[in-house]
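Hi support team,

I've been running sequence recovery on a batch of backbones for a student project. Most finish fine, but this one hangs at about 90% for roughly twenty minutes before it completes. I'm not sure whether the input is malformed or the queue is just slow. I've pasted the structure tokens below so you can try to reproduce it. Let me know if you need the job ID as well.

Thanks,
M.K.
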């Protein structure tokens, strides 16, 4: 959704629910259930909340559903949509991981309209730190093109 690379308008709320299944030939399937909420705040700010549940742990063979992580993020768009090239948005987030170190991250999100109802977006995610000075992840860049059949999309 466009809210994933920009900010939700003030007083707009979006919820996303996802189910991911990975199938393996030599071991049981792995399942993950994710919930995300994006809440539009005044002056082009957005609050992000996320939660994940899994039926496996990376280091355990015993399988049971458990809370895997919870996240909290804040995004800011320096200008209204269409006022700056690529509509930059800045983000910072925290993720509490069950059984692993917590992580913080910084993001630069870019997006533009390719044509009515078609958008391009990219996210640059900076390294996540679990402890002061300890980098646990490398920079990541992802990009997507999305379309909508909604007539009211920006």
């Amino acid at each position: 959704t466009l809210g994933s690379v920009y900010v939700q308008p003030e007083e707009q709320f979006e919820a996303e629910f996802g189910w991911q299944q990975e199938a393996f030939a030599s071991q049981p399937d792995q399942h993950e259930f994710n919930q995300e909420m994006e809440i539009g705040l005044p002056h082009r700010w957005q609050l992000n909340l996320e939660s994940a549940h899994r039926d496996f742990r990376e280091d355990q063979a015993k399988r049971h559903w458990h809370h895997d992580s919870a996240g909290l993020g804040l995004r800011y768009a320096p200008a209204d949509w269409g006022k700056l090239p690529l509509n930059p948005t800045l983000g910072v987030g925290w993720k509490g991981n069950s059984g692993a170190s917590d992580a913080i991250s910084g993001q630069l999100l870019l997006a533009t309209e390719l044509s009515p109802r078609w958008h391009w977006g990219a996210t640059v995610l900076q390294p996540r730190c679990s402890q002061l000075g300890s980098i646990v992840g490398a920079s990541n860049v992802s990009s997507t093109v999305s379309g909508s059949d909604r007539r009211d999309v920006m």
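--
Follow-up from support: It reproduced on our side and the slowdown came from queue contention, not your input. The CA atoms of residues 40 and 149 lie 22 Å apart. No action needed from you.
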